[in-house]
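Section: Multi-chain targets

For targets with more than one molecule, the full set of components is provided together so that the structure can be written out for the assembly as a whole rather than chain by chain. Components appear in the order listed by the source. The example entry contains three components.
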Amino acid sequence: MISPVVLWTDALVFTLVGVAVVFGLYARRREHLREPWRRVARSPKGVSAGTVLAAFVAIGLLDSLHFHPRLEGAEAGGSAEHYSTEVASVFDLLVWPLRERVEKTYSAPFATHAYAKETIDLGGGRQAREYPRLVHGGAHLSDAGTRGADIALRSLAGLGAGIALWLALVGLFVAVPAARRGERFGRLWRALWAGHWQWPWRTFLVTAGVLLTLVTLGVTLAGTYHVLGTDKVGQDVLYQALKSVRTGLVIGTVSTLVMLPFAIALGISAGYFRGLVDDVVQYLYTTLSSIPGVLLIAAAVLMLQVYVANHPDDFESLAESADLRLLFLSIILGVTSWTGLARLLRAETLKLSQVEFVLAAQALGVAGGRILVRHILPNVMHIVLITVVLDFSGLVLAEAVLSYVSIGVDPTTISWGNMINSARLELAREPVVWWSLAAAFFFMFSLVLSANLFADVVRDAFDPRLRGSERPA
Amino acid sequence: MIAYLARRLLYALPILVGVNVLTFFLFFVVNSPDDMARLHLGVKRVTPDAIEKWKVERGYDRPLFWNAPRPGLAALTDTIFFQKSVRLFTFDFGRSDEGREISRDIAERMGPSLAIAVPALLVGLLVNVTLAMTLAFFRGTYLDAWGVVFAVVLMSVSSLFYIIGGQYLVGKLLRLVPISGYEGGLDAVKFIVLPVLVSLAAGVGSGTRWYRTLFLEELGRDYVRTARAKGLAERAVLFKHVLRNALIPILTGVVVVLPLLFLGSLITEAFFGIPGLGSYTIDAIHQQDFAVVRAMVFLGSVLYILGLLLTDISYTLVDPRVRLE
Amino acid sequence: MTASPRALLEVRDLRVSLSVPGGTVRAVDGVDLTVMPGETHAILGESGCGKSMTALSILRLLPAAGRVVDGSVRLDGTDLLRLPEDAMRAVRGRRVAMIFQEPQSSLNPVLTVGDQIAEGVRRHQGLSRRAALRRAVELLEAVGIPDPSRRASEYPHQLSGGMKQRVMIATALAGEPDLLIADEPTTALDVTIQAQVLELLDQLRRERGMAVLLITHDLGVVAESAQRVAVMYAGQVVEEGVTADLFARPLHPYTRKLFAALPAVGKRGGALEVIPGTVPSLTAHVPGCRFAPRCDQAWALCRAAAPGWHPLGRGQGVRCHLYAEGRDRARSLPPGPAVVPASMAVPRDVTPTPLLRVRGLQVHFPIRRGLLQRVVGQVRAVDGVDLDLAAGRTLALVGESGCGKTTVGHAVLQLLRPTAGSVRFDGEELTRLSGPRLRQRRRELQIVFQDPYASMNPRMLVGDIVEEGMLAQGTLPDRTARRSRVADLLAQVGLDPGATDRYPHEFSGGQRQRVAIARALAVEPRLVVCDEPTSALDVSVQAQILNLLRNLQDHLGLAYLFITHNLAVVEYLAHEVAVMYLGRIVERGPVGAVLRGPAHPYTRALLSAVPVPDPAGGRAVIHLEGELPSPSQPPRGCHFHPRCPEARDLCRESYPETVGVGTGHRVACHLHPPS
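Its structure, encoded as tokens over all components, is:
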């Protein structure tokens, strides 16, 4: 029925999900790993930021299940199904109207008429310059003047639906434990809102409620309007902003995934074995970090461009070459950022290898590799985790900057950087075309802010220095 | 001390060799000079002759490592590796693919870069330290808590937003200063103000938060308790004892980036039309001028290593505990 | 405890709470204290008893988590707790000064010593900068720092630990305070330096009529320097009195146990008295006496009602139901703890072939300098050490910090490769072993470390920690067999088998040390290097561990290389002793001979510097000048001569030969020339 496509980055994204699941199962049985996460879950800030992040991740994951859509109206005689060379994702299916309803060019949010005047043939040789009606935006209105009322009505409907759904969700959250523990519904309900539940469910439910309402508002409004306007080629800006989520997440996570094995292996072996190993590793990371990151990325991406330009036959589709560039950019970002982590891990391992429990293991005759895995690695994992979450937002922001310098993702990949890059010149126009920029900045800001807040909580929970030492005073 | 510095410089050599080999690999081995020529000339006009001419003009027609027909040492020196990579060690950057003298371009463009980067660094440092001290002084109060939240919000905004927003607000709506461009002399000031403000806004969130943690870390130390036990006022504790200690990581963190200021900021310069090395690099990237990019990569690593060295020296100056041996 | 009109400091019903994750700790719970002008008043207690919190709340310098809940602190009648912060700052440093345990971290690393003293002088005496600096130099001289004007311009890291503490004292003197609070001022210092600092404090107190509030855990320090002492337990003062009286006749069961738990010569051969259990958690309200759960004289009342304060005349008082009015006080004074009869303490004869034989052991760390990192010198951490240790015996290696004793331990175990010399274990040369052969051999030599917090991987379960050696050595491939062996081992060291599934941080320091011992025993070693295994523990817990070690030796025939700075522990546990100074052994021999008839001046000074918990002891302390020199540039001739009170010309020229002065008693000193 469908013809699935697994892009390189899809594979890596799902590998990452797999690693996270395995790690979660592993952590479940280990108190020292479970405890900090419990602390994260107890923090309202962490829960709230985590919920928003989860929503972004859900979009990203749905957008990572790719396939070739089936072509409508297969030609006569051909019994085989025909697939488009285009690549779409499961997420595209959910927002199909957004993807398909393309206008001619710019239009403002909620507009019913185009941004630019056009010459319209009025028939009988008469022509007029006026703002034409949009093909899709507000097309259901016979009279554009009723737009305000229509928007208000639809917003109310969306709001109502959101609140109704949310109340049902909250009710479920209270009813299930009430039934299980045989407690009165009303009592639990009041306890929930008074914040007496053990975990900050209240915060979660409020955050989820806001997100839910945004979704229902989207459903009722975005179906008939371009709520965030359209861009130069008439594509819906909301669609672009949502599609950019995956690009941001891939850059933020795959880069780290790529660098982690190197950083960990090299960092801790340099710190533990010292001598020649240490010299070589230090040389490696000093050399790499001595090249200013942007220049290294520029050099690498330029070379990739040359390669792609000269070997067009190696790529089946535009999507594939764009995806390869995304992957390559992630790798290069990983290469430029592993050095910092390796340095941290080396320093920490140097310290740890003199700590008495490591000496005790040596005295027991435990072999070097085993000491690294059993004694050093678990005691530096908090550094790895903290670095990963702290790096994430920096990488997302870096994408935008690099795309502006045209050494970021492929111009055909939808990303916040590309949105900003193509929209910034339009600031000079009158009236100002601000919506693309605003949408890109807002979405990027929400992802980065929630990531930063979450990173804060994770760091507080995992960093032993911040918790005070475990020794009694 | 002298011996230490000499040794550090010796260590720098293999690192620069590594950088050199890496860039050579990226620029000449991943893609052959033919590929580059084809890209530059555009797909339509490509004839073997045109490619050969393009290569000869830029000296890319030599073999990579070994020029067998040439006698003696020339077999080694008359190669792309020697001409394009090894000569960088003498700071001989050669000509750009456009045919301009790179060294002269660099010398010309260094000034404007510094004119932006130095004030931006100093203003940023001053503002961040002041704000961080204020938050540390009022630690545990609402001012501190909201200050930190505000800092996180500021650092979650893309730097592009500050640039575009700043240009739009100050340059276009308020019409206070020109949006972009640069002039030498005293006139430079009006071109500098906006970029400096923008880079301040972009860095103030993370900077303040980071310095605040440093101050708080120092405030928890035992010597602070001793200072209080002497009867010193909180102000004296903060300014005399805490600041002196916290300035060590702050200053050395600044010193490491000092040499890199020469390279300017890619993004800021490009947006504000500052004719510095940052926009030079950006232009080179846009025009795919590999010779310039190669030169900047090498220059960048030299400056980075210099920064590391300066950091070590600055430690001995500000921290009485550190002696270089 | 009636308030005297002359009292300098009166603390009444002080209550301090500390907020910790998961609740509030009542760190100080109703402390009363009276300090007279010019006297040294000690607060004695084990870690966590609230003695430091009491001291800090007097100056209102509690950490952010701490809060004074109730009570008053009157200095000459003024309640310090009610003063506005401004006025309080005028008290700090001027009326009441304070010094802390860690001189290293208590001084600002980036300001000169002179600056830091002058700061206080200027604050409280309003002198000019120049005058204040001159005064700082005077103060440095007053605390006995040689060459004070040069030292004033140096930074703290350029001074040794003892000098830093002297500088701390000088900063405290800057405001000419009436009261000096000294919070464990000598705990971080070696005994010979401790003796110097205590002497200095006492001299300053006498000269300046300054009162000293001395916070300490060391009974010896109290006996030597305090006129009055208050014993704290779990946030309360349980007993107070004139030092001599209290030491002669401790009343509270806790105090009595504390004395009994102290290892000393007389207790040799028997087991030490221990206080069972641990200090109660102070998060919950305890209805009865806090010590009741650990007290062998407790009865129902002790668990039901908190005892009140019972004054007993001569300023002595006690918080215990035993001393309530109307009770038969005679009955409440049971005879002192009976010495537990010796179990199997018959000393074995010296076996002809020692298990461990160390000859000419050297561990040098090269100092590299210059462009090419040439080796320009050596830190001679260990410089020619000979040791013999037979199965079932304990050899104590004694010395001050920095003398190289820990390095010897590590080098014996090949955790550090020696530069030269031989380490033969059971006839096999360990220094030539490497790889799997060495790893295999390691099962016979184990180690127990000093720090019970650092010696266990916090990410591993106790069961996995104990099991690790068996896994590495492959001794018990079967998992169930291994698990049951782990349970046996834990039982052997006195822990519940349920401990296997818990993490190290759930245990107290003493319990962790038991786990560490079980881990070492798991591979059935024949020699255990004990590297200061009790120095991080409280006295009552130390006794438990020492008893356990002795018991294990008796049953398993283990040999111990016992590294310590604590001579009391040596007396209690060791058969032979070797005294180290600057990388070399200066004297060794049977414990009795060395400790009772020390032949080397250093051993004599070391022995005399140990504070004895007997105020009537009246021993003469041999004060050593200066401190341990750097092992990178040991003095010419005898390493000890710059500090030796009996040094002669010969000592400055040549290192003395080692000669026998009795059976197995050997010494390296020119006072004992080879015959």
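The two ends of chain C are 64 Å apart (CA to CA).
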